[in-house]
Specification:
Blueprint (H helix, E strand, L loop, with lengths): L2 H29 L7 H11 L3 H4 L1 H13 L1 H10 L1 H20 L6 H31 L13 H4 L2 H25 L2 H32 L2 H29 L1 E2 L2 E2 L1
Helix pairs in contact: 1-2, 1-4, 1-7, 1-9, 4-5, 6-7, 7-9, 9-10, 10-11
Length: 256
């Protein structure tokens, strides 16, 4: 394996780790408006990710640093072409982290309520923007011989990228609900489980639609079909196992 291939693999692992760990963070943030019914329950949900959310974002920072160190041209082209969505994403992450730290500083409903909305909105838009960015990379963007990306608004935001953003958002919400099934008990756990069952079917439809659209509007299957089919097969197995988990009510290490 060449050195550049090793670095590319390392960066891929870092981004996978980020989405795997930060995905349930985003999902729990979204679930605060769907599962919790009052400020106390929202605080309980946020406390489930309290020890983890800031450490999980280190994966993203490390991935960006590895891109800059190993592939500076790739880093420069990517971050200049996606300047607006990535800056907006950065601002959302800052707002989300600030909300986690400051929501409990003042004991007043309006204070905590404002920060709770910030957590929800940032947790909703962050995975959506990540989905838009990566879907656009799969779809393709015009890059000239000087490695300058000529991306307009419609080059980044189009039906395919929006579908990818919706898919990643639903996936993170489902991930977060599964996490809450393990980290909560009683009424909160039952609500998270019930919502997860509903979200699963919406997620399955969105995933199927994204795969079908990807097949027709990109050349990914033509060039990388041998690699994609087992990956999608593994995804199906994981989703089926998650349904088994929900149907058997195996949560928090015991049956409920």
């Amino acid at each position: 394996m060449l050195l550049n291939e090793l670095w590319f693999l390392l960066i891929a692992v870092l981004f996978i780790g980020f989405f795997f760990l930060e995905g349930y963070d985003f999902g729990v943030g979204m679930a605060t408006r769907f599962v919790a019914r009052n400020e106390t329950e929202r605080r309980m949900l946020i406390n489930t990710i309290g020890p983890f959310w800031d450490a999980n974002e280190v994966w993203m920072i490390t991935a960006g640093g590895a891109m800059f160190a190993a592939f500076p041209n790739w880093y420069a082209t990517l971050f200049s072409g996606f300047y607006v969505p990535l800056v907006f994403l950065l601002l959302l992450l800052i707002a989300r982290g600030t909300a986690f730290e400051y929501r409990a500083k003042v004991d007043h409903p309006k204070w905590s309520g404002t920060w709770d909305w910030a957590i929800f909105i940032a947790s909703l838009l962050c995975p959506f923007l990540w989905g838009v960015v990566f879907s656009t990379l799969v779809y393709g963007l015009p890059i000239d011989k000087n490695m300058n990306m000529h991306a307009t608004f419609t080059s980044i935001v189009h039906p395919y990228s929006v579908l990818g953003g919706i898919l990643i958002t639903l996936l993170c919400l489902y991930h977060g609900l599964m996490f809450l099934c393990l980290r909560t008990t009683d009424e909160l756990q039952l609500r998270a489980r019930a919502l997860a069952k509903k979200v699963f079917w919406i997620l399955a439809v969105a995933a199927l639609a994204f795969i079908i659209v990807t097949y027709f509007v990109t050349d990914l299957f033509a060039k990388r079909g041998a690699l994609l089919y087992p990956i999608y097969g593994l995804d199906v197995i994981v989703l089926i196992l998650s349904v088994v988990f929900l149907s058997k009510s195996v949560m928090a290490g015991h049956l409920v």
